[in-house]
């Protein structure tokens, strides 16, 4: 399995957002450090998810960036993405691993050490851990766990921990110090006036 990129860009498909424009700005800056997770709204059709994922895979390929698909693993397989990401409402990690195969990248959401260790034992190759900070991008989340929560999970597993939820370049150093391997963002790039510059700032904070 190739090494995992440290900057995960999750597509923002809310009305008025333009995920492919953001991606085109981020790719030349982050190149193989970029992991793009195709995430669509729950009411999007599989065809819409497929069309977006197909375009993302094609855009990522020349840069060596990685494309994953959130939730819809059949779409990941259909577009030959590198893997997928699952959480509590999705296929169980062991079932997801069976679907994707042993070589795929498989991310799982974990918010505390016990479920984190279970997800790794079931076949997760990285963990998405959060919400680290308050976020307006997704509703219904538990209270933020902060760097201390990330530290507890990172100490319990031997796979990369990707911190998520309200992450900005300013919050990256504390998350890295807590053991995060990388970060996943929506708003920090999708809402940026200059996504290329925001990508450079996030990468700078991740790799210094
Ligand atoms: C990197 C990363 N971490 C966590 C999540 C959240 O996944 P999940 O809990 O399944 O929630 P949805 O994203 O499906 O709404 C993620 N997508 N990526
Ligand atoms: C999709 C998602 N999952 C989360 C979790 O904690 O499981 S937080 C989140 C949204 C992250 O968006 P932003 O970077 O704009 O805060
Ligand atoms: Mg999910």
UniProtKB/TrEMBL annotation:
| HAMAP family in alphabetical order | TMP_synthase (MF_00097)
**What's noted on cofactor binding?**
Binds 1 Mg(2+) ion per subunit.
* Family of the protein in this entry: Belongs to the thiamine-phosphate synthase family.
| Any one GO molecular-function label of the UniProt entry | thiamine-phosphate diphosphorylase activity
Q: What class of enzyme is it?
A: transferase
**Which reactions appear under catalytic activity for this entry?**
2-[(2R,5Z)-2-carboxy-4-methylthiazol-5(2H)-ylidene]ethyl phosphate + 4-amino-2-methyl-5-(diphosphooxymethyl)pyrimidine + 2 H(+) = thiamine phosphate + CO2 + diphosphate; 4-methyl-5-(2-phosphooxyethyl)-thiazole + 4-amino-2-methyl-5-(diphosphooxymethyl)pyrimidine + H(+) = thiamine phosphate + diphosphate; 2-(2-carboxy-4-methylthiazol-5-yl)ethyl phosphate + 4-amino-2-methyl-5-(diphosphooxymethyl)pyrimidine + 2 H(+) = thiamine phosphate + CO2 + diphosphate
User: What is the name of this protein?
Assistant: Thiamine-phosphate synthase
């Amino acid at each position: 399995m190739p090494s995992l990129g440290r900057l995960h860009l999750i597509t923002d498909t809310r009305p008025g957002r333009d995920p492919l424009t953001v991606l085109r700005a981020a790719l030349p800056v982050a190149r193989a450090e970029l992991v793009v997770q195709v995430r669509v709204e729950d009411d999007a059709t599989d065809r819409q998810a497929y069309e977006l994922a197909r375009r993302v895979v094609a855009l990522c390929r020349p840069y060596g960036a990685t494309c994953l698909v959130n939730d819809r693993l059949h779409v990941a397989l259909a577009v030959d993405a590198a893997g997928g990401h699952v959480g509590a409402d999705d296929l169980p990690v062991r079932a997801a691993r069976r679907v994707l195969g042993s070589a795929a990248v498989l991310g799982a959401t974990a918010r505390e050490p016990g479920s984190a260790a279970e997800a790794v034992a079931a076949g997760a190759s990285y963990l998405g851990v959060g919400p680290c900070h308050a976020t307006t991008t997704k509703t219904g989340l538990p209270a933020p766990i902060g760097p201390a929560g990330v530290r507890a999970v990172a100490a319990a597993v031997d796979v990369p921990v990707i911190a998520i939820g309200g992450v900005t370049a300013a919050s990256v150093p504390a998350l890295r110090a807590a053991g995060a391997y990388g970060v996943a963002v929506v708003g920090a790039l999708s809402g940026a006036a200059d996504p290329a510059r925001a990508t450079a700032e996030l990468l700078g904070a991740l790799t210094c």
